[in-house]
Amino acid sequence: xxxxxxxxxxxxxxxxxxxxxxxxxxxxxxxxxxxxxxxxxxxxxxxxxxxxxxxxxxxxxxxxxxxxxxxxxxxxxxxxxxxxxxxxxxxxxxxxxxxxxxxxxxxxxxxxxxxxxxxxxxxxxxxxxxxxxxxxxxxxxxxxxxxxxxxxxxxxxxxxxxxxxxxxxxxxxxxxxxxxxxxxxxxxxxxxxxxxxxxxxxxxxxxxxxxxxxxxxxxxxxxxxxxxxxxxxxxxxxxxxxxxxxxxxxxxxxxxxxxxxxxxxxxxxxxxxxxxxxxxxxxxxxxxxxxxxxxxxxxxxxxxxxxxxxxxxxxxxxxxxxxx
Amino acid sequence: xxxxxxxxxxxxxxxxxxxxxxxxxxxxxxxxxxxxxxxxxxxxxxxxxxxxxxxxxxxxxxxxxxxxxxxxxxxxxxxxxxxxxxxxxxxxxxxxxxxxxxxxxxxxxxxxxxxxxxxxxxxxxxxxxxxxxxxxxxxxxxxxxxxxxxxxxxxxxxxxxxxxxxxxxxxxxxxxxxxxxxxxxxxxxxxxxxxxxxxxxxxxxxxxxxxxxxxxxxxxxxxxxxxxxxxxxxxxxxxxxxxxxxxxxxxxxxxxxxxxxxxxxxxxxxxxxxxxxxxxxxxxxxxxxxxxxxxxxxxxxxxxxxxxxxxxxxxxxxxxxxxxxxxxxxxxxxxxxxxxxxxxxxxxxxxxxxxxxxxxxxxxxxxxxxxxxxxxxxxxxxxxxxxxxxxxxxxxx
Lengths: 324, 397
Known about the structure:
The complex is a heterodimer.
Chain A: H1 5-40, H2 56-66, H3 77-94, E1 99-101, E2 104-105, H4 112-133, H5 137-168, H6 173-179, H7 188-191, H8 193-206, H9 218-221, H10 231-256, H11 268-286, H12 294-322
Antiparallel strand pairs in A: 1-2
Helix pairs in contact in A: 1-2, 1-10, 1-11, 2-10, 3-4, 3-10, 4-5, 5-8, 5-12, 8-10, 8-12, 10-11
Chain B: H1 23-30, E1 37-41, E2 53-59, E3 62-69, H2 77-83, H3 86-89, H4 93-96, H5 101-116, H6 122-150, H7 156-175, E4 184-185, E5 188-189, H8 195-220, H9 223-229, H10 237-243, H11 248-252, H12 259-262, H13 268-271, H14 283-307, E6 328-335, E7 340-347, E8 355-359, H15 361-366, H16 369-372, H17 378-387, H18 392-396
Antiparallel strand pairs in B: 1-2, 2-3, 4-5, 6-7, 7-8
Helix pairs in contact in B: 5-6, 6-7, 6-14, 6-17, 7-8, 8-14
């Protein structure tokens, strides 16, 4: 692909739009999450600031912007400040290949999913840096957990996606959406239910959300890898957590739920509806389940998800070979 | 060792390699194997519920040694007993353990009554049982929520608070307060329950039974929850007896010991209180014992409500505020939510007792932790700590 001026401008516009999407997503999701948590816990949730508490999240982010960035003693300065940036910036690139609508893709590369999986690896690096650099034992434990968890859960995640890629015969996200039909029974969720289930479990593990929130397990490690971060440093971690959630939800919508296709009026709204349903699912289980233990977390992965993913991939490969 | 540093007396410094520890950390570090991490949980840590501090030596995620450090909430409750008259000291009992104040009320009032030979009217005895059982339910409920929160489930504690709210409304009618209840008087109770008080309790009992069923479906049968607790932190009979553990922990270990039956006090011997046992001795067993105890308390409440007689609630010759204890020595124990709550008074016949010793069950129960947590994973150690049902003000007194 030659990088002409038009492509460059296109990427620039896309990145700006993605930054807007990420910030808007964080603001909306914080509100949705707190209201959902309030509903689950039988309390009102935020309701003081603005009508129904809608500008609570904006006020919170203003507070985070204005807060002092406290740097503890003996930190590794370079890594300490690099970590939140590293958590945030790769996420911009991750959204580029996602087909939001039939003609709305930031960068329609032919092997988009490889780009996503490659840059998703930066997230764990930033967690590791944050935990290591902040000279805190809780942070270090959190970082160690984050690394082994992310490494473990990336494998079944990729295996689940590989089954779809085998079936479609393409690495391009647009082609994967085009291969699915308009109606729910033509989507990959029914063709590959096991892959969908594996992906759903691993996306929770991959985004470090409860019940797999071991790297920041509050009752054990206070806040895990971001214990020592305050102000904007914390805000960037927070933002990237929600952006990562959004990303895995979009990938899920694209791979399993027919992307922008719907029973009527194909378009960007279908992608968003599907992605936000997944987001709401992630929020929902966070407030209803207790946390698993670390060895159990790895057992779920290595003893169940990985063999299941391999079996699923194997069956898919055979069927694809037999029925061309 | 250099001389005392007046500018920086605590040795706190930003310079790398300077001394940052304290007495406990120093001693703990001496026995540590090189290369292991020493982690300081608390005194400000989300799962130590208050200001408990635990030093742990970690090899990876494994806890090799653990040592609780106490005293961050020491309020000299026992010394206060020596400088105050029994009448002045009684309200302190609501502050020793803020979650289970009625048991402490009873321990101190019972000790004074035994020493002074004061007879308590029949109706007051029943009101005492009702208040104590309501308080036990309320204490177990808060423990239930906090314990599930230790395991990462944040929602149940808010459900538990809903029931606690009802209980607070009920106990408020007779005690006048919602947290540091001061209901008992020497020779009776402060106030008789009115019709609304008894009606609310009667409504509460079936309501709570329904909610217990819901708790089973929501939390107890959750597969993650079960896997987190089953087989974790077993505490057998010999361990419990060596450290003097009482209450649900001892009963989960298979020892059928309940102060209400072993050393009957009040009218408990007439109420035939059921004592749940027969659970495994791990974290899950201790969890189940407490839930079953809520059920048992509701049964006792029902029986007490059915057989409560009419009559005065305070003995006619109740001690005046200037009352002097006769010389002598007495130990009076009651069954609190966390175990045996005891009060030992030595009096020389003066205005104030010569010595007041409070036996806090949490203190003995906490001492099991160091041994039980050895070799577990950090998350399990937190679960064990939670299953001990510690209230730090009571541990430190």
